[in-house]
């Protein structure tokens, strides 16, 4: 189950290529776009860390019900923010046999995102989200409803200054 935050097609279609290679050696894989990302029809401004974790749980639960899946050999790969989601999922789902963090963003976000907070917090308060320009991909729309290490929170201020 490979995941990252923005789209299953990110990073030069790396996940599609990896899935093809896994299939060639008899390993099934599933990729997803979180609600609000990539091919998802959900609004990106509603994207939250807790929503990402819930999406991951739903994919795992789906896999677990499939007859062609060996439920004793399910692994997970998280890329970037997906590694953070993976770590949170592993706290609850103990039957996953192995986990791979690929360029993992496993942190609480305070130091890494402080610059974004300083620049975009007011915009998030005024609009309910902040539009953060990315120069190599589509812009990020971050909801003011982000997540700290342990629980969903209702404002960026709680993440960075609590």
In short:
Residues 58-107 form the BAAT/Acyl-CoA thioester hydrolase C-terminal domain. InterPro entries: AB_hydrolase_Est10 (IPR053145), AB_hydrolase_fold (IPR029058), BAAT_C (IPR014940). With 162 residues, the protein is of the alpha/beta class.
* CATH overall fold name of the largest domain: Rossmann fold
| β-strand amount | 5-15%
Overall pLDDT confidence: 76
> What CATH architecture label of the largest domain applies?
3-Layer(aba) Sandwich
Number of helices: 5
How far do the termini sit from each other?
34 Å
CATH H level, superfamily name of the largest domain: Alpha/Beta hydrolase fold, catalytic domain
- How many domain modules? 2
Assigned CATH class of the largest domain: Alpha Beta
Report the principal-axis shape.
Answer: elongated
Q: Which structural class should the secondary elements be placed in? A: alpha/beta
Low-pLDDT stretches = 2-6, 147-162
Radius of gyration: 16 Å
Order of helices and strands: EHHEHEHEEH
Largest sheet, in brief, is: 3 strands, parallel
Number of strands: 5
As a percent range, the share of helical residues equals: 40-55%
Widest β-sheet, arrangement of strands: 1-2-3
GO molecular function: hydrolase activity
Pfam family, one: BAAT_C
InterPro entries: AB_hydrolase_Est10, AB_hydrolase_fold, BAAT_C
Keywords: Hydrolase
What descriptive keywords fit this protein?
single chain; 162 residues; alpha/beta; Rossmann fold; 2 domains; three-stranded parallel beta sheet; two-stranded antiparallel sheet; 5 helices; 5 strands; elongated; disordered N terminus; disordered C terminus
